[in-house]
Design a protein that fits this description.
Structural class: mainly alpha
Strand content: under 5%
Order of helices and strands: HHHHHHHH
Radius of gyration: 17 Å
Helix content: over 70%
Number of helices: 8
Length: 138
């Protein structure tokens, strides 16, 4: 898969956004890091899939609850309520991107070290339940 230059920058911005959010949570919900992570994540996502597709992704009727919670959480982080904002934002994130978890799990199972760990008998059942994936009938 070939990425354009804008998509490569988007991947970097999204990665840095996730890193800053993780760091902000690890440092006891530091509002500045969380706000910076949110800005980088959303702008990176926009660069990866494009502005029009980003708007249509967030504006779909079945994703409206997730969009409201995600954007509401970002606003709460901006007005200095980082803990409550991250809780609301996490709920919105799971509603928005929860459909991708089985795809991500399948990809991670093909990686060398992580895949071996995720394919262990008990870990496989737990990860399948968490990701919501169903075993293939084939």
């Amino acid at each position: 898969m070939w990425l354009t230059d804008a998509q490569k920058i988007g991947v970097a911005l999204t990665s840095f956004g996730a890193l800053f959010m993780l760091l902000g949570v690890a440092l006891f919900f530091d509002g500045a890091l969380l706000a910076l992570g949110n800005i980088l994540f959303v702008s990176g996502l926009t660069l990866i899939i494009g502005p029009q597709k980003t708007f249509y992704f967030f504006a779909r009727k079945q994703k409206l609850r997730g969009t409201i919670c995600f954007l509401g959480g970002i606003i709460l982080v901006f007005i200095k309520w980082p803990f409550v904002g991250m809780c609301v934002e996490t709920f919105g994130f799971l509603n928005l991107f929860g459909d991708f978890f089985p795809v991500i799990l399948t990809f991670m199972r093909q990686l060398p070290v992580i895949g071996n760990f995720l394919n262990l008998p008990y870990i496989r059942t737990i990860s399948d339940k968490l990701a919501g994936s169903r075993p293939s009938m084939v």
